[in-house]
Design brief:
alpha+beta; Muramoyl-pentapeptide Carboxypeptidase, domain 2; 4 strands; binds zinc ion
Length: 110
Amino acid sequence: MLSPHFSAVEFRCRCGRCTPVLPAKILLAGLEALRAVVSRPVIITSGHRCAAYNATIKNAVPNSRHITGRAADIVIRGVPPADIAVLIKYIAPELQALPRATYTHIQVRV
Ligand SMILES: [Zn+2]
């Protein structure tokens, strides 16, 4: 396990062929803090993405922080993306949460 509630495989690029890039510790710490306040599993729907895989994703920017392990898309059952964004702003201001329709993009601020 990378942290109490997250394992490396959860952040693995979905292409399944590239060299793994682990999530930035500051991102992982923020996700643990989020999990603690909601007391529910934080599901990683997209963690690391190699540049090749990222390029296949619609609307993904070429310099996405997913490529460097500094972003993750998450879902928490029963907690809407807008609520997740509010919580992140409060408990992990070093991160930026962008609520989408069905998930929340969370990234390390630059
Ligand atoms: Zn990949």
